[in-house]
Amino acid sequence: MKQLLASFLVVFLLALPGAAQAGSVTLKGSDTMVILGQRWAEEFMKKNADTKLQVTGGGSGTGISALINGTTDICMSSRPMKEAEREKLRSRSKTPGTEIAVAKDGVTFYLHEKNPLSSLTLEQLKGIYLGDLTNWKEVGGPDAPIIVYSRENSSGTYVFVKDNLLGGEDYSSRAQTLPGTAAVVNAISKEKNGIGYGGAAYAKGIKELKIKAGSEEIAPSTDNIKSGKYPLSRDLYFYLRTPPTGEAKAFIDFVLSPDGQQIVTKVGYFPVK
Amino acid sequence: MDRQSVMEQGLVETMAAPQLSPAARRRQLREKAIAGFVTLMAFTGIAALVLIIVFIAKEALGLFLDAHAREEASLSKMFLPQVTRAGRPASFVWQPVSSVPKVSMIPLFIGTLKTTLVSMLVAVPVGVAAALYAAEFAPRRLREIIKPVIELLAGIPSVVLGFFALMVLASFLRGDSAFDSRHTAGVAGLSMALAFLQFLSRLGPQRLRERLRPLSGLLAGLLAVALGTLVLMLLASGVPHVFSFTHRLNAVVAGLALALAIVPVIFTVSEDALTAVPWSYREASLALGATPWETAWKVVLPAAAPGILAACVLGFGRAIGETMIVLMASGNAAIVSANLGESVRTLSATIAAEMGEVVVGSPHYSLLFFIGVELFVFTFTLNLIASVWTKKVLKRLTGGAA
Fold first, then answer.
1. Considering CB atoms only, which of A168, A175, A179 is closest to B333?
2. A257 and A169, same domain (yes or no)
3. Chain B residue closest to A167 (CA)?
4. Which of A260, B72, B209, B279 has minimal Cβ neighbours within 10 Å of its Cβ?
5. Contacts of A108 (CB under 8 A, 6+ apart)
């Protein structure tokens, strides 16, 4: 909600002084990336006052269509472009399009600190969130019900887990939905049989769940997410019709610079460089 | 024409159009302007209400007009069990964000029903009893403290009540609260000490009695508060042993927090209704030999019944529509079950939680407005039933005279 309001506000403020101006670059797409895009734009415009950056959300799909239709300069997407979309772009603008990974996003699962388990396989996690596994003893823990916490369906993380962990299937209807990582972390710290997910968080009373793959246990650490080893991570992309030039290039160079990547960490995602 | 008729004519003329002084005319004009302004304000309020209804209904109507929405969220999908996963029995599922949206309203109805039920079960006895005490039994000075204090409860923002329920009440009812038996013993000891002082102020030695007399109102108040706290603490330490809640955030936690919000509503309106009962009723009852309790219970309370019913309906309307408290304290899982210890998702919380990111004009968007229409219909119907019932009761009480 806060994110939404903030993005509305910034979009509104950005839209005020004559939208279609010379030296303006538009960014459109993923709602997950709106805040990130806005922070980048704010910092960039502080240094380059004559460039106007316009950042709007709408979803990755919306951003990609806008890129194909030529109504945005840069498309922000939290998923790679599909083959059909690349095909459309090629037939419309005679270019293959340029893909630039600008940040990484990872979802962390949390347990109560007293939970004897420290890792689960993706299959077990999926079973828990689909509501097929309802007792901790089914995954090697104590005989106690699993209390599942999820996020509201308006959240980008909700969709990410649904797509990447559940394979698009529905969450168990017994999953309690809470607004935001902080609320989930707070709930888990008070619920010894609880499990929940969100962004990276450090708090008393909870521990981060590692993902078991074969004999290895992968922690959701910055290194593992950066290297792509942690399975529940994804790249966040910028898409352009042609390799960037002029102001767009200056902006993307800024995004990939140490300053730009520091903003990524501040907003709660992981740097690519 | 003779003089008389001229005079008469003049008289008639002045009668027909009285000559006002400019000051008086200005005053008259100002009166008219003010009356017009007030009328305009009143009708603006009504117009706003009408516009809100039209707007909500219009947005919800998309559900029935748009072919895509009609298929995705038909009435049968909203109210009849559906097979949601292959090989499972048909069930009621609320999962509007999905490749195949499931839009059953039943879990949401059950959630709203559960929280509202719990809150009314707690708030009606507490609110009405408090009103009865304040109106019939409390000493005048104590009443002047009780009334504003309870009404102050109405001034607590619902987000604060929700936060309290989320952080404190939920832990309390789980049995992992911050206080233990020592705290309970402390409050019990304090109550006993206050009770002893109270006893001394009534039956103690003459000198002590005179010393304590000015404090007796305060002592009685403190004693009542201490005893109330003791009851709450005993309940809180007893509840986790009697009921074991599946979820930390559940219908009981949300219902109790809602009760805190609606007790002042029920109290205030009931108290007004009780004090409005004419003194002659009480005097007649007492003169016929009834005790104060019999008078309050059998005469004053029935006479105030329509007002108390109105209080309950107002409280119910607040409980069913209250959003922030249930959003924070109910866990928001759309579960179909009768267990009060499980998490619930209410109609109002669903609107608040999902409106943020919904695509404008999509079936999901219309669906949320449809929920709004349902909430509106519920409270409207209840108000209607209550007002009809009130009229019946009034008729019976007044022997059909009114």
1. A175
2. no
3. B99
4. B279
5. A197, A198, A199, A200, A201, A208, A209, A220
CATH number at residue A79: 3.40.190.10
Please check whether residue A152 touches B, CB under 8 A: yes
Residue A272 in any domain: the answer is no
Of A145, A176, A190, the CB nearest to B332: A176
Q: How far is CA B253 from CA B58, B158, B229, B331, in A?
A: 35, 14, 18, 10
Do A214 and A128 reside in the same domain of the chain?
A: yes
A111 touches chain B (CB under 8 A): no
Chosen from A5, A112, A173 to mutate, greatest number of chain B CBs within 10 A: A173
Tell me the pairing of strands A210-213 and A119-121. Answer: parallel
For residue B125, give every residue at least 6 positions away whose Cβ sits within 8 Å of its Cβ, in sequence order, or none. Answer: none
Phi/psi of residue B152, nearest 5 degrees: -65, -30
Residue B249 forms contact with A (CB below 8 Å): yes
What is the number of other CB atoms lying within 10 angstroms of the CB of residue B202?
A: 11
Which residue of chain B has the CA closest to A159?
B97
Alpha-carbon gap, residue B323 to B332, rounded angstroms: 11
Query: Same domain, yes or no, for A114 and A70?
Result: no
ipTM of the complex: 0.73
Task: Please tell me which of the candidates B95, B170, B246 has its beta carbon nearest to residue A170.
Answer: B95
In DSSP terms, B113 is beta-bridged to: none
Is A273 a member of any domain?
A: no
Q: How many independent structural domains does chain A possess?
A: 2
**Among B247, B324, B337, B350, the residue to mutate for chain A (most A Cβ within 10 A):** B247
Residue A145 three-state SS: strand
Q: In terms of domains, do A101 and A129 share one?
A: no
Give percent helix, percent strand, percent coil of chain B, each to the nearest 5: 75, 0, 20
Tell me, yes or no, whether A118 and A13 share the same domain.
no
Residue A135 lies in a domain: yes
Taking the Cβ of residue B87 and every Cβ of chain A, the question of whether any pair is shorter than 8 Å is answered with: no
A249 CA: distance to closest CA in chain B (Å): 31
| Calpha distance A257→A266 (Å, rounded) | 14
A168 touches chain B (CB under 8 A): yes
Angle (deg, nearest 10), helices B140-153 and B216-242: 40
Q: Is A207 in the same domain as A248?
A: no
One domain, residues A116 and A213: yes
Write down the pTM of the prediction: 0.75
Q: Which chain A residue is nearest to residue B96, measuring alpha carbons?
A: A153
A221 and A117 both lie in a single domain: yes
At residue B52, φ and ψ (nearest 5 deg) are -60, -45
| Interface contact A175, partner B, CB < 8 A | yes
Domain that holds residue A216: 108-227
**CA–CA distance, A255 with A246 (Å, rounded to integer):** 14
Question: Is A160 inside any structural domain?
Answer: yes
Q: Do A174 and B171 touch (CB under 8 A)?
A: no
**Tens-digit pLDDT string for chain B (402 aa):** 455 555 555 555 555 566 778 889 999 999 999 999 999 999 999 999 999 999 999 988 888 888 877 877 788 888 888 877 777 778 888 888 877 888 889 999 999 999 999 999 999 999 999 999 999 988 888 888 888 888 888 889 999 999 999 888 888 787 765 566 777 788 888 888 888 887 777 777 788 777 777 777 777 778 888 888 888 777 767 666 666 788 888 899 999 999 999 999 999 999 999 999 999 999 999 999 999 999 999 999 999 998 999 999 999 999 998 999 999 999 889 988 888 888 999 999 999 888 876 777 788 888 999 999 999 999 889 889 888 888 888 787 776 554
